[in-house]
Amino acid sequence: MDYIIIILQLVLSIVVLLVWMWIKELPTSFHKLHQQTFQHELNQKLESFKTTLSRELEVFRISHAELQIRKTEEFISFGNLQREFLTDKELLKKLEAGESETVNEINKKILNLATGLFFFASDQTVKKYGDWKTRSGKGELAGIEIVRQFGQLMVALRKDLGHADTALNEDDYLNLFVTDWYKHQNEI
Questions:
Q1: Angle at 179 between CA 178 and CA 181, to 5 degrees
Q2: Cα angle, residue 13 at apex, residues 12 and 17 outer, rounded to 5°
Q3: What is the mean predicted confidence (pLDDT) over 82-97?
Q4: Mean pLDDT value of segment 18-27
């Protein structure tokens, strides 16, 4: 019987030891399980965030590209109208004669294009245009200076379209439209 008691004590000791080891490892197991669950939830949230961010970035890129196209169209229209003032002698004659239909049409175009500039050009360019328009309207800018300021405005628009580091200046622009600009570019 002593053997049975010793064996039972030994079995009981082994069982108590195993239970003790199991209880001792229980918090670690719970922690690992909780950590795995937390990590899985975190990974799901991170993937969801990545997907949302990627989607929003793509929408932003598309929106920016569409805005850039619209901005380019507005600036080209503005440049073309201003170029007409420099090169279309018939238009200038009609404006100087005060032909009401021509004057009204040009005023309407200028207002539409000024609105486009306001929405699409940088603050600096909008202010440059406003200053140029006001000063030329008051007669403060005349002759070569009005043309030179216009050239500077066109370079500012070019910068707004993404050519911030352009090496071109107003003389480069005006050489494209004024046949003998090289004769005037040093005049102040």
A1: 60
A2: 115
A3: 78
A4: 80
pTM metric for this prediction? 0.62
Determine the residue type at 8: L
Report DSSP state, residue 138: T
Across the chain, where does the E strand assignment appear?
none
Contact 72, 166 (CB under 8 A): no
**Six-digit token pair at 179?**
């046949």
Of 26, 24, 23, the C-alpha closest to 34 is 26
Spatial distance between the Cα atoms of 48 and 53, rounded to a whole number of angstroms: 8
The label of the residue with tokens 């200076």 reads: 145
Query: How high is the pLDDT of residue 39?
Result: 81
In the structure encoding, which two tokens stand for residue 78, read together?
A: 């503005």
Structure tokens at 165: 């580091």
